[in-house]
Every structure is written in C-alpha cells, then in structure tokens.
Amino acid sequence: MEHLGSPVYTGRGVIAISLVLVAFMVYVILEVIHWPWESRLQKNLVWIILTISFYLAWKSFID
User: Fold this and answer.
1) Considering only CA atoms, which of 47, 50, 23, 24 is closest in space to residue 58?
2) CB 46, CB 26: distance < 8 Å
3) What is the pLDDT of residues 43-55, one digit of tens each?
4) How do residues 12-39 score in pLDDT, each as one tens digit?
5) 15 to each of 39, 40, 59, how far by Cα in Å?
6) Where are the domains of the chain?
C-alpha cells in the first residue's frame, strides 16, 4: 500500500500491460476492418486475454 502513489514497474506488470495493449490493438484492428468472425470464440478469446492481463497488472501493482 505504501507505493500506491508510484506504481512499481515489475517485469510481471510490464508484461501484463503489454498484453493489454496488444489485445486491445488486435480487437480495435479487427473491429475497424470488420473481420468476419467465424464464431464468437475469437472475440471471447480477446476479452479473456484482456481480463487476465488486467488482473495480472492489478496484482503486480498491489503486491
């Protein structure tokens, strides 16, 4: 809690933030080009990656 004002950038946090950015960019690109989704699996997979990445980022900043 003492480093709440200044987040400590651990390796795990950097990886998690990178995953969030990559997943978000992939999602935006696929939305922009109106990719014909074969099923909702690909879209759900992107959301799962985003959720896990945000969780890892949050955990690394709290710990």
Assistant:
1) 50
2) yes
3) 777 788 778 877 8
4) 667 777 777 887 787 787 777 766 656 6
5) 28, 26, 12
6) 11-62
> At 60, which amino acid appears?
S
Q: pTM for the complete prediction?
A: 0.43
Smallest CA-to-CA distance from 58 within 23, 24, 20, 2 is with 20
Amino acid sitting at position 46: V
DSSP string covering 31-52 = HHTT---SSTHHHHHHHHHHHH
Measure CA of the first residue to CA of the last residue in the chain; give whole Å: 8
Gap between the Cα atoms of 19 and 49, Å rounded: 7
Compute the distance between CA of residue 29 and CA of residue 8 in angstroms, rounded to an integer.
Answer: 30
